[in-house]
Automatic annotation (TrEMBL):
It comes from the Bacteria. Residues 10-138 form the DUF218 domain. This is YdcF family protein. It comes from Vibrio agarilyticus. GO terms for cellular component: plasma membrane. InterPro entries: Cell_Envelope_Assoc, DUF218, Rossmann-like_a/b/a_fold.
Amino acid sequence: MEFYPDTHLVVVVLGKRLVNNELTPEGHGRICTLIEAQRRYAELTSATILFCGGVTQGQNRAEADVLCDAYLAQLTDDSIAHPLGGIWRENQSTTTVENIEFVARMLIKDIAPCHASNTQFQLMLVSTDYHLERIFQIQHWMPQQGLLSRLLHRCEQANVSIQLPLDVSQHIVAPYPYTGPAARCFQAIEALTPYRVYLEGLCQGVLKLDSGGTRLSDKASPSECLEFSAYEQAHKLAYDALEVLSRVSNIEPYWQRQIHRVSQLIANDPNTLDKAQLWEHVQEFHALLLDLNRYFDPENQRLNKV
């Protein structure tokens, strides 16, 4: 792991949904991995730690508060000193998108003013492996849609200098704690996220398909090549995920139909749709992924039969 010289390190622990107002094994994993990193890297001693996550539906405690409390308790149990840069809680966000938006706001309005005006900050993210992998896949494949691009842009506008390595190995990565059919299905559904983000980019006009549809013309510009590469990679990842789902037995018929509908939407060339149809396409795709994600998530309170 690389630490940039002459920067102040800010470690951002991304939010994790609670169950009965308590951390799940995945949430605990993020805290344990952060603590282990502090034992291993002396540079984290002087860092600022920022916990993310507000109150989500069905809960009455903020994710950031529960994560932070677990972290402080673990520091005490392990006799580890509190980070010298202080601990902050961002307790309003309820999604990853909001996590990043509120982190940018806190960096600009709260954390940066505590330091000299010429301070450079290095950001290090803490989350589960699949979560960070998606964030960085999207950032590399379609930076126009990347959450980190938004954060960097907002900080740049506010004259807050940020160093944010785009290599996932330079961040604190917690292993996913589950195995088995439900876990495989959940991770496969998560792997459909880049294709959803790609479709949203088309809808918003941030991305566009080449007029040749699924073929790129010989006269394509570098930016068009990058966008088409995003389409190819997100599309392939989606088909690989569908292949994983097809190999899982004992999925209830209702959820099999939902997965089949997802596969139909992925097979439908977005280049053949007008703007209104594309928007309906994206909305349906997003709703299906949300339902499937919640159903297959091993940490969901509902018991499923996978």
